[in-house]
Each structure stands twice: as structure tokens, then as C-alpha cells.
Amino acid sequence: MHGTHGPAAVQIDPAILYFGTPVVLIGSTNDDGTHNLAPMSSAWWVGWRCMLGLARNSKTTENMIRSGECVLNLPSAHLVGAVDRLARTTGSDPVPPGKLYRGYRHEKDKFELSGLTALASETVSAPRVAECPVQIEAKVAYVHEMAQDDAAWGGNLTAIEVRVTRVHAHPHIMMDGVPNRIDPDRWRPLIMSFQEFYGLTSQRLQRSELGRIPEATYRPPGWQPAL
Known about the structure:
By secondary structure, the chain is mainly β. It has a single domain (16-212), classed as Electron Transport, Fmn-binding Protein, Chain A (Pnp Oxidase, Chain A, Roll), CATH 2.30.110.10. It is built from four helices and 16 strands. It has helices at 59-67, 80-85, 97-101, 110-114, and strands at residues 2-3, 6-7, 21-22, 24-29, 35-40, 43-46, 49-55, 69-74, 89-90, 105-106, 118-119, 128-129, 134-145, 157-169, 191-193, 196-198. The strands form five sheets. It has a seven-stranded antiparallel sheet, covered by helices on one side. The chain is globular, with a radius of gyration of 19 Å.
């Protein structure tokens, strides 16, 4: 029965908690100098820092910890086909048992498979993706081992904090007449929600009070990105 506050919530036990976050294509460098490209969506940003939730045994995790760097490429919704071609592939050989169980296969050249184009970066050796409207170069700051108090998950999950060193954006998503600002009315990120792809609506739902705050006020006085 619905009450005055809406339907009563029921207790559930979901296997995953992906309520909806932008897809990130992480570019990294393999130990032989070749490129790896991996889709993920467990990422969040504060200032010029980003936290990435990754499996401890993934090739991307291995590459980032060894090289200390990566590129966070943000695909728009129209790149969904290219992103999906990378699904259930891994740069690890042999394929880790957990991924093998879920039907993953080893793929050496992720760029060729996806049809995307690798670009050289400016502050790191990891690759950018030319087609992605946002390309964020970053270096590893800290590696946090997650769920150490959990017998099932301990040793399997890692949160990697990276500091951003350079940001690239396609001109068509930039705000007219305002330097350094991405226009949220033009930026259409690819969203992953409970393992399915979605995009944003073309209209804002309503004016945001936070949107009235000048974006530049979030930058600490005198701050410059550290390479």
C-alpha cells in the first residue's frame, strides 16, 4: 500500500550496486610498450583527483601500478558500439579465473578491436582515444586495497587515486565565450547503469542552484596542476 511518502521500501540483496555512472575507457601501457584500453564505470572525481575502483587482478590495474600513470578517456553516448566491442575482453593472458567464468577472452590490440584511434599524450606515455570528447591524463597518487575486512572480497578490489595532469576536450562540447568550461547542454556522456548503457536527456530538468556558483571558485587560490 502506498502511503503519503510513497511506496514502502523493501530490503533487497543486489549482487552489484552500479546505480549509474559515466563510462571511462582507461588507456594504459603494457610492460612490452603496447597499449591497453579497458572500459569501466566505477570512477568519481573531486577537484583534479579521481578515484578508480578496479579488480586487483586486471591488466589495467597491473599496468597503472607498474607505470604510475593512465589516461581516462570519456566516451560520448554515440560511441556505445565501440565501447561494447571491448566488453568481456581482457589484456591479461592467461585470462584470470573470475573473468574466464564470466566469458571473457584475451585481446591484445584493444584499439583495433574497438575501431578507436590511439593518440600520444603530453604528460604520460599511456594513450588517449581520439574519438572521446574528453581525455584526461593522470598519474597514480595512492593505491588503496579495499575490503580487507571481508573474507570474500579482500585482496580482490583496489581503489586507485590518480591526480590529473592534463585535460583535453573536443571544441564542440565547450561553452561559448567561456574559457575552460565544458557545456553540460552539449556533453552527452555514455552512462552505465546495472550493466546496461544509457545516455542523458537533451534537456536540463530544471535550473540548479549550484549552477549559479561560478565554476572558477572551486579552484584553490594559486593552484596549478602538478606534473
